[in-house]
Amino acid sequence: MSFNQAAWLREAGKPLEVSEAPMPVAGPGEIVIKNAAIAINPLDNHMQDLGVFVPSFPAILGCDVAGIVHEVGAEAGDRFKKGDRVIGHAINLVTGQPRDGAYALYTVVQANKAAILPDHIAFKDGVVVPFALEAAVTALSVKEPGTAMPGVPTPALGLPYPSLEQRGASSDKTLVVYGGSSSVGFMVTQVATAAGIRVISIASAKNFDMCTACGADAVFDYHEASLVQDVIDAVKSQPGQEFVGIFDAVAGPETVAHDLAILAEFGGGHLACSHPPPAEGVPENVKAGMIFAVNDVATPVWRDYVTGALQSGALKCLPQPTVVGKGLEFVQEALDKCKAGVSATKIVVELLKIM
What we know:
Layout: E1 4-8, E2 17-21, E3 30-39, H1 42-50, E4 64-72, E5 85-89, H2 92-95, E6 106-110, E7 114-116, H3 123-126, H4 130-141, E8 146-149, E9 152-154, E10 173-178, H5 183-193, E11 198-203, H6 208-213, E12 218-221, H7 227-236, E13 242-248, H8 253-265, E14 269-273, E15 286-290, H9 299-304, H10 306-312, E16 321-326, H11 331-340, E17 346-350
Helix pairs in contact: 4-5, 7-8
């Protein structure tokens, strides 16, 4: 008989408490994962501190899981079987159900938001992928604008999906990624270049090599006073390229000001942000919006791309993890470390020892 525990959030602004949790059951199109590693996202801090996206308490937070398939629901057996090594994106963000939270020994994941993890990749490395992947695909591939949150439009870059055959720029399109050394920034760069898009990245100078390893054609230091002009010159350096817009993984006042200055040079365009863009001061010729990192547009990527790309090395598990500890009792410490700020790493907690 399996036993489940979770790191529960009893009320907003309070520390997590580890205690027993109901054992989840896989429904149609779902799998239950016995978690070997979970990862922390800044969104989790906002959910804990402010209660955003938490419809009721107590709650189990977290989006990123890696582990072993414990149970396979109906309609999921065509891709998974019990004992498979997998990574998955848990969707408590939209369901609010404790069974769908990552901060537990067992988590329910939709089969269309999971993929086989190749044997040569450790769980602690693979777990950095899921949330960032879905956010990246949502930012790049949504074709029609919509509204994920009241009053906050969803950007619609409408770019093609990544391909296992593609690596590096081959189309006539250029994208700027601000915050290229963040978890989602790394992933946007990888997904875009695997779709043939030329990427110009903005990051700290110490992380240039990692941005280049992800496929960025050029990288610029956000500390430089000449940043805006440097990026404009880089976009223009290849005549005939279509500038499709900017993905901003930071989306703070300073970065958005730079974004708008760059876009002004090209007569406007698309700005996809990781946080809600400013309510005022955005020109009419700029289509700005916030990504919402749960979207069925990512289903083909989970199904057809992730495992093969991980196996071949075309998709890298970046940024590298910083493991805080082993056990649910370390999740609160991990959240605190994430909240304090990290650079070019993702905070991870290991759980059960699974060979």
